Amino acid sequence: MTRDTVSLWIRLCLKAGTMKYLVLGHSIIRWLSNSLLMPRDNLELHLHGVGGRTVPQVFHLDLLMVERINPDVILLQLGGNDISDSTSASDFLVKLERLITVLREKHPSSTIIVASIFCRRLPRGISERSYDRKKKRVNKFLLKKFGASEQGK
After folding, report:
1. Alpha carbon of 152 to those of 35, 51, 114, 126: distances in Å?
2. Which burial class, exposed, middle or buried, applies to 99 when counting CB atoms under 10 A from its CB (0-12, 13-18, 19+)?
3. Where does residue 126 rank: exposed (0-12), middle (13-18), buried (19+ CB within 10 A)?
4. Residue 89 to residue 134: CA distance in whole angstroms
5. b/e per residue 18-49 (b: at least 16 CB within 10 A)
6. 100 near 112, Cβ under 8 Å?
């Protein structure tokens, strides 16, 4: 996540009243859910991370859970498992934009935050160099399209 994304996340967390937050992602979110210690007054936090999770899997497997939770804020930490030699950066971005469109249609009052793709020490099915090149291309687009000044609804 960029510093601006974290700053936005903190500002949203400090809003008055009980807020429902959902963080959707891959294994990093699962690890976070195992170690996160924070006060939860006025905060209903749902961390849903599945190892190996990709954008198409979120689209097909997790949308009913999003419906059930009906969050005020949705943070998407996805992409690390989508980047491969057989997938272009633009293919991934098309899938991500489709997911965001569906989330916005089903949850028009929710704020949607799209986090940057993290570095990986050992990318699967792709060299580190190719992974880093595609990750940078995707993150540059994400910052341009969903940057902190444009984050949200």
Report:
1. 27, 26, 9, 32
2. buried
3. middle
4. 6
5. ebebbbbbbebbeeeeeeeeeeeeeeebbbbb
6. yes
Confidence of residue 136 (pLDDT cuts 50, 70, 90): very high
Among residues 85, 58, 57, 72, the alpha carbon closest in space to that of 22 is found at: 72
This prediction's pTM: 0.79
Amino acid letter, residue 76: L
Give residues with Cβ within 8 angstroms of 100, minimum separation 6: 76, 112, 114
Q: 126 with 79: CB under 8 angstroms? A: no
Specify the DSSP element, H or E, that contains 23. Answer: strand 19-25
Of 28, 103, 98, give the one whose Cα is nearest residue 63.
103
Residues in the chain, overall count:
153
What pLDDT shows up at residue 153? 39
* Pairing status of strand 43-49 against strand 73-77: unpaired
Most distant CA atoms of the chain, gap in Å = 46
pLDDT at 149 over 90: no
Tens digits of residue pLDDT in 25-61: 887 776 766 555 555 566 778 888 888 899 999 999 9
